[in-house]
Write a sequence for this structure.
RNA sequence: GCUGCAGUAGCUCAGUGGUAGAGCGCGUCAUUGGUAAUGACGAGGUCGGGAGUUCAAUCCUCCCCUGCAGCACCA
């Protein structure tokens, strides 16, 4: 037996016989470490404690203290324990896959009968029984034929398929706890008792397609969440509740911003408060775009199918379009139109009017373009994913050699916009040529290089999405992060070589010959509807003053202050502030509560004292204390704060 | 679109095979009250839509619509 040297993370070295396991080393270091050990990392490879170490190695023993490894192991073992629990309760259920995901895991099962909420409780209880058994986890490497034969014999067709998907040369590893067995890459805990029995919870059941393909069989997926201890689980559940409190659908109702109803699924009825946010945002974008050298246009909603055929939408996008047929009986003519799902073909029509010269380029054309798309019913979600929406759309017609400068210009435009709207940072994703594409490799080379270098020049290193570009050109996607760390893809910037060709756009170059322009499709917010949803959730309804629909409420404490309040509101309105009085016959506590729930940023309370002194008691949303200042001071402060960010100085 | 769940007063929700209840909100009256709910009284729904079973359906069955969660989709 040869001796090997094990080097621990602190640099300490220990000598053992070759073939010793990580678990044995842990026990040798100390009895308590031996107990606490969950798994180990050997020369950078995350492994089971039970695997022998044959040569000199760096070794790190993982315990519950190592958060990422511990969570990975716990969740992974939860997945297996859940699958075992399900098969022990319903032996005829077929197992498929059960990966670790953010905050937990899921496992997909094939079972005729749907799992019910009560079933989840039963499964959860069974899981705790399995954990209490403290069954050791055992592993073996099998050859492919044996694994296939085993799963065929045990009637697990999905596992047979999975074995077939494991690449040649990769070990086929089998795991057991108790008699239950699963195919798995590992690693796993040393025994089932290492899963904290009070720190996991089954969350929900849903359908999911086998291998993520809608053409395949639909399986039943059970989601669970698991943590290192009860406190972490509780913190996570509390966080979910907090996130639910900012749900834009709930706040939209509470703040009286909008509503939706079943006669118009996926479309929004904007109430005065919500429309105020919308127009404030649109006014802001319009000023920014004008300053950015865009010309604003507006194009038709209902457009003949001929244009969609020419643009390619009829062929590629028809499923998502609202088709409008006018029949002969009523109109004495037959016409098939479609509501526009995108603005680009219409913009090319404007570009195509008259002759364009190279001197006209780059031509930056913007439209707050209302579009309608027949989104699948299951995709609809509040005002975030709708069937009728308005994009802050724009198309830049330019020469190939202008792509880089225009891209840089747009990135700076977008970056300022996000900053103005209260978002700290954003990520950029770069998608390059897909397999099936239009345009020559040479043109793609140029376009990709231009996008990349413009992004890098802006000091941004994009995340690469190889092969994910549109068939007509490469694209950048801009993802912003909200106040609670969620990512939202909003902006987009796409190079398009195809549409100008299909719709025959051209300009006369310096050489007197016609040339094809390149089109850059770009949007900053994406759609107003979705972006406002994001804003609501980002601010939890507490909008900065300039965006808030109702900026100030002047609330009277006694009715003797009614006239004074009305006068203050008149002064505030004259200063351009959205203000209203609340002189209802209610107590000040009641009014403060109601307007706080309604997320009004500023309440000015006025009673006898204020009338006498010409002051107001200013209370900001969420603050406990109010401040007494003169009316003139209040107007001056609020005027400044209510000014849109881009107009301030 | 697929799977599952849900749809009762403006909102949140309870409830029953014999035509329905609470809190908040709303209205009226009283109260003029200092920074997150003053009190009393009152109005308000035929229980998402359609069909069926039944002497009788909001409650059971079927179909449809809409919503929610996830999957798929997001050109």
């Amino acid at each position: 037996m040869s001796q090997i040297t094990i080097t621990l993370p602190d640099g300490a070295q220990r000598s053992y016989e070759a073939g010793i396991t990580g678990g044995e080393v842990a026990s040798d270091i100390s009895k308590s470490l031996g107990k606490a050990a969950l798994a180990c990392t050997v020369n950078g490879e995350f492994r089971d404690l039970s695997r022998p170490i044959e040569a000199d190695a760096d070794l790190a023993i993982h315990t519950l203290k190592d958060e990422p490894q511990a969570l990975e192991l716990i969740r992974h073992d939860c997945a297996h324990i859940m699958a075992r629990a399900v098969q022990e309760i319903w032996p005829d259920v077929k197992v498929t896959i059960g990966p670790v995901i953010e905050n937990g895991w899921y496992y997909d099962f094939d079972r005729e009968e749907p799992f019910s909420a009560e079933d989840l409780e039963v499964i959860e209880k069974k899981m705790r029984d399995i954990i209490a058994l403290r069954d050791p986890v055992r592993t073996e490497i099998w050859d492919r034929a044996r694994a296939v034969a085993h799963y065929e014999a045990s009637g697990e067709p999905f596992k047979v398929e999975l074995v077939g998907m494991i690449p040649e040369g990769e070990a086929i590893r089998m795991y057991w706890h108790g008699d239950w067995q699963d195919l798995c890459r590992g690693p796993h805990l040393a025994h089932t008792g290492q899963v904290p029995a009070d720190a996991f919870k089954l969350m929900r059941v849903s359908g999911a397609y086998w291998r993520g393909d809608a053409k395949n069989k639909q399986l039943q997926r059970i989601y669970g969440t698991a943590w290192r201890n009860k406190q972490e689980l509780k913190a996570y559940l509390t966080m979910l509740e907090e996130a639910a409190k900012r749900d834009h659908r709930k706040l939209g109702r509470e703040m009286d911003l909008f509503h939706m109803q079943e006669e118009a699924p996926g479309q929004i009825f904007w109430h005065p408060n919500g429309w105020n946010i919308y127009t404030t945002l649109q006014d802001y974008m319009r000023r920014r775009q004008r300053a950015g050298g865009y010309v604003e246009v507006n194009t038709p909603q209902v457009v003949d199918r001929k244009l969609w055929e020419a643009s390619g939408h009829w062929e590629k996008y028809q499923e998502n379009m609202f088709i409008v047929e006018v029949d002969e009986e009523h109109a004495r003519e037959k016409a098939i139109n479609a509501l526009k799902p995108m603005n680009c073909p219409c913009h090319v029509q404007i570009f195509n009017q008259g002759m364009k010269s190279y001197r006209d380029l780059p031509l930056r054309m913007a439209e707050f373009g209302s579009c309608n798309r027949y989104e699948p019913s299951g995709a609809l979600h509040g005002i975030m994913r709708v069937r009728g929406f308005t994009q802050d759309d724009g198309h830049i017609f330019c020469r190939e050699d202008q792509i880089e400068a225009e891209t840089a210009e747009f990135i700076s435009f977008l970056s300022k916009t996000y900053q103005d709207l209260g978002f700290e940072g954003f990520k950029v994703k770069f998608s390059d040529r897909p397999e099936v594409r239009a345009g020559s490799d040479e043109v793609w080379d140029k376009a990709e290089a231009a996008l990349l270098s413009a992004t890098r020049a802006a000091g941004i290193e994009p995340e690469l999405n190889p092969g994910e570009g549109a068939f007509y050109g490469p694209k950048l996607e801009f993802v912003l992060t909200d106040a609670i760390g969620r990512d939202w893809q909003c902006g987009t910037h796409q190079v398009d070589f195809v549409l100008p060709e299909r719709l025959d756009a051209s300009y006369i170059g310096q050489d007197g010959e016609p040339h094809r322009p390149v089109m850059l499709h770009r949007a900053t917010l994406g759609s107003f509807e979705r972006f406002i949803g994001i804003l609501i959730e980002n601010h939890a309804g507490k909008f900065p003053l300039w965006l808030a629909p109702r900026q100030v409420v002047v609330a009277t404490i006694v009715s003797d202050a009614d006239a004074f309040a009305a006068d203050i509101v008149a002064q505030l309105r004259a200063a351009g502030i959205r203000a209203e009085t609340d002189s209802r016959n209610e107590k000040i506590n009641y009014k403060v509560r109601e307007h706080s729930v309604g997320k009004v940023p500023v309440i000015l309370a006025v009673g006898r004292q204020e009338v006498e002194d010409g002051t107001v008691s200013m209370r900001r949303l969420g603050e406990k204390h109010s401040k007494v200042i003169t009316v003139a001071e209040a107007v001056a402060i609020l005027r400044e704060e209510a000014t849109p960010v881009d107009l301030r100085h």
